[in-house]
Amino acid sequence: MNFQKIVLPILGVVVVVAAWQGMGWPGVAAAVGGIVMWMLLHFTRIMKVLQRASSRPVGYCDSAVMLNAKLRPGLNLMHVVGMTRALGQQLSPKEVQPEIYRWADGSDSFVTCEFLNGKLVKWELYRPQATADQSATPAP
To answer: pLDDT means per 10 residues in the chain (140 residues)?
Structure first.
């Protein structure tokens, strides 16, 4: 069970009760105003991430190698979407845990990420092998 779904509402109620005991109705108004502002900031962040992702192809990232370097366990899906600025190509069936998404770049490299309950648990980078023609050409 996700404790954030339980702890955050309880924390909100505790803040409002403490504001009531400390300052009465003006305290309640300030506490509720602060909670609403916090919720609006998170909503705005989510909408901005999705707005940026809407202008790019699904499953695309600038560099799969750089994405691989930035990933760490525990990142949520929205954070990864924000880093890639694109929605991932969903490889797993909808509504089935764990969720598997893939982001690829222009060089046929890709990162496959596995999310359990919205949190990144593991990922894998795939880079294609260089062919004989590519490895024989000298670098400029």
So the answer is: 80 94 94 96 94 91 93 93 93 91 92 93 90 55
3-state helix, strand, coil in the chain (%, to 5): 50, 20, 30
Tokens of 136: 């024989």
Beta bridge partners of 99: 115
- Please give the model's pTM, rounded to 2 decimal places: 0.76
The answer to whether residues 68 and 122 belong to one domain is yes
Q: Which domain holds residue 89?
A: 58-126
In the chain, DSSP assigns E strands to: 89-90, 99-104, 110-116, 119-126
Please tell me whether residues 71 and 86 are part of one structural domain.
yes
